[in-house]
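Issue 218. Parser rejects a valid record. Input:
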Amino acid sequence: MSVIKKLFILSSLSLLGPVLAFAQPNEKPFVIPELREWVGDEGIWQFTGGTAIVIPSVVKDKLMPVAHEFAADIKTMFGREIPVRIGQPNPGDIILSLGELPNKNEEAYSLDIDETVNVIGNDPKGVYWATRTMLQLLEQSPELQLPKGRTLDYPQYPIRGFMLDCGRKFFTINFLQDYVKFMAYYKMNTFHIHLNDNGFKVFFDEDWDKTYAAFRLECDTYPGLTAKDGSYTKAEFINLQKQAESRGVNIIPEIDVPAHSLAFSHYKPEIGSKEYGMDHLDLFNPETYTFMDGLFKEYLSGPNPVFRGKQVHIGTDEYSNAKKEVVEKFRSFTDHYIRLVESYGKQAAIWGALTHAKGDTPVKADNVLMYAWHNNYAQPKNMVKQGYDLVSIPDGLLYIVPEAGYYYNYLNTKHLYNSWEPNQIGNAKFEEGDPKIKGGMFAVWNDHVGNGISEKDVHHRVFPAMQTLAVKMWTGGRGLRPFEQFESLRQNLSEAPGVNIMGRVRNGKGIILQKETLASGESTGMKEIGYGYRVDFTLKAADNPKGTILFQSPNAMVYLSDPKEGKLGFERDGYLYTFDYTVPLDKEVQLGIEGDSRSTKLYVNGQLKESLDIIRVPRGGKDKAIACVRTLVFPLEKTGNFKGEIKNLTVTVP
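Output the parser choked on:
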């Protein structure tokens, strides 16, 4: 059967579905996001030692990078070498090519699994997404098999995204790089990085000077502006965007003004508003515009700008609307920076605020991307009438604010899976396929600065949300399997090739690591173990100085003797936590540490010594408090430089 004929069958699925149900020996396989269309055949395709990735010579320049990354991912995930070659395929090969599909979307692809596996995309993006589909299918098959059948797959929405607040909590560049891979694995194509923000004054003695604020990007125009507790060099940020581009992910950087802007008024106090708060820029001061023009210019100008992508977000939310004159100034400010961004060849993205800031001053709407986050700030139907394109990001459904007590600690994925699509923004519902609804996004806001949340904790909240919302933004809401089935099956998939932020052990229950003895500086063969673990070992320690490490990985350290008090403890993400326990000298003791997403427990000689749970701690006054999260993904990569011996190390997943 010709490819064209097969694609014709695919395009007719909606008409023949009830009849074809009896002619589909292979049911639609599970991947995230779900395949839009599927026709099953009998039998399986088997990955063998002779399997190669083959590219027709006419498309070698466009598809060779995709092919090589696919081959590298296969080696990473399955330990199998697979050659990439140009020319004619043999039975058992995987063929990557370009063509014209019935669906004209640039992200569409067809996947025809028979004696060979034939992939066709309208664009290399579609071919790349097809490789993600194949990897997910292969990782669910211990025998590295694919079910024979055909799919034509394409997204419901062009923007499928996630926003990470890096302003109030720093995330390492390695974490962001892993997130590019993670998002790409689930065909989420937009990564919004929020580069500046500040804490709430109420938690800092009502003093703006004490209130935490940070801008995370290297800055030459204003030396000293860049946060000292964590930042990205320009080279790192450019490289991150390049890596994202190669994986079909567009990074949208955000410089958030004129509210949430305390980092800028800390640097230059005269541009802060004395009337509305120093986290508001003074819109009536010409120096504000001079300062912000210079900042945007640094990252947008030149032949190779730091902000490489097609969109740049300028913020514009939650500014005071106390007076008409300030509303008009806010609207003028918004229009100015939309046009400034456009003057550098970029599309401007903004937070919806123009219902809250209703006024007479015109604000450019054509070719402006508005995030519809709260309908009282921007009524979606009215914004569409004004000409804005919308990204659906309703705060009441899609905002994660870890351990804050409002919005969501974990998103309600069941409700989202069963009841939400991007065309639903609060109480405003648009027709399916409305061209003004460009897609959806969800967000992590780290409002409560210094609450102990780790990168691992944030990811623990994001992982199920990413998998769920990938389905709703690519596949939509039609033809999905029941949520309970989805919830069970999704856990069989990894985060991405070579990415395991959760520290999960695939199919790992019971004892997953044992070592009779471990010497100082010795590798264990395992990087770390994620939540739901127990680590037991016998320790006999000599006299060790404060700061002596017992176990370590790139993300955390367990101290035999912590740097401050000489107690057993751990450190990650810049937070140091200690148990009320000092390891005795030259005496054998049995220690056990249990960790989950809520606590870290210490057992001494089989008895619970202490549980470091999430607690409330005073912040900014006796009647104010924030959470203190004391979790640990246990580091196992190697032991530290300590005097003593570790015996009978056992790592267990109950």
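Fixed in the parser; the record now loads. Residues 3-153 form a domain with the Chitobiase; domain 2 fold (CATH 3.30.379.10).
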